[in-house]
């Protein structure tokens, strides 16, 4: 049995950030187990057609948290990054507008603007109607029937490929009500409602590499504490062991809870909660033609298109051409001859009962000194910057921060 104080499962952003926080504090009794031959998780990159391509989808370093940014820059210095002001759009098939939709209705043809204005004026949230629980009813209640039918419902249907009413609405509560008055003024003035984008308004991307480069640097910084090609198959909560061979005083799990073949020491409620955790798989597919657009990425709700998003890498990755698409694996043709990458675990799904399920899992595990961390350990759709922040905060809980 190989024993350490901190046994970390997974060398994605969460596990690597936590491991490096330990090292920076002077702690050396830790071990990182990674099932792949390379670190980075969903943020890995590969060279495709002579330039980096992010094989896990579009990932960028948000600028908004200086503590996170400075931490990341300690592994890949700031001068190695380009900074961009985000340009993203929504392609409706017959029109293309800036993201977010509700802020840029003024960019649509006038007859479409009128239809949206009427729908927004009749939205349930603007009429004081009771908030519905079902996702398919909540979206038009919140945004109006027109935004719901033209964008939000078809886009989510493509992305999740499941009954939308199995998805909760709690994760959308941060969306502001769409004001009829503000939207009308926006259409008259030809300007956006919101002053800034809700996320990744500005972001960094490496000048000479894919986004995976920074995580390789983090892994190299703790290389003496890394073990690759080792899947965490068996987790014993009571003994705090993995695969019957690695033992930790504390276990930090950043891998999907559903990816363990066997979990010992878990009660019936824990195992029942585990069955409620859902996820989607995404296919990344590369196209070598360069599109004439300044957009960094564009969303596609149109049902006829396989993919739900395109990332135009030549607009943020120096020296590259072409673009890649993101598609739910249930919609993707992976045998069409194009370079593609299948990510089994891409997005946790915010099902109606997910919050209760993951709360029970995390609470029961923590009682046994096993902690969930990151997108999969906490089963939340965290971007990489948020994941790093969570890792830094957990390290501080253990008194292992700088």
Describe this entry's structure for a reader.
The model has no long low-confidence stretch (mean pLDDT 95). Helix 1 packs parallel to helix 12 (384-397). It is globular and about 70 Å long. The chain has two domains: 2-87 and 205-397, 3-Layer(bba) Sandwich (FAD/NAD(P)-binding domain), CATH 3.50.50; 100-189, no CATH class. The protein is an alpha/beta fold and 402 residues long. The chain contains twelve helices and 20 strands.
* CATH homologous superfamily heading of the largest domain: FAD/NAD(P)-binding domain
Query: What helical percentage do the residues reach?
Result: 25-40%
CATH topology (fold) name of the largest domain: FAD/NAD(P)-binding domain
Mean pLDDT: 95
Radius of gyration: 22 Å
- Bin the strand percentage: 15-25%
Alpha-carbon distance between the termini?
Answer: 31 Å
Secondary-structure content class: alpha/beta
According to DSSP, the number of beta strands is 20
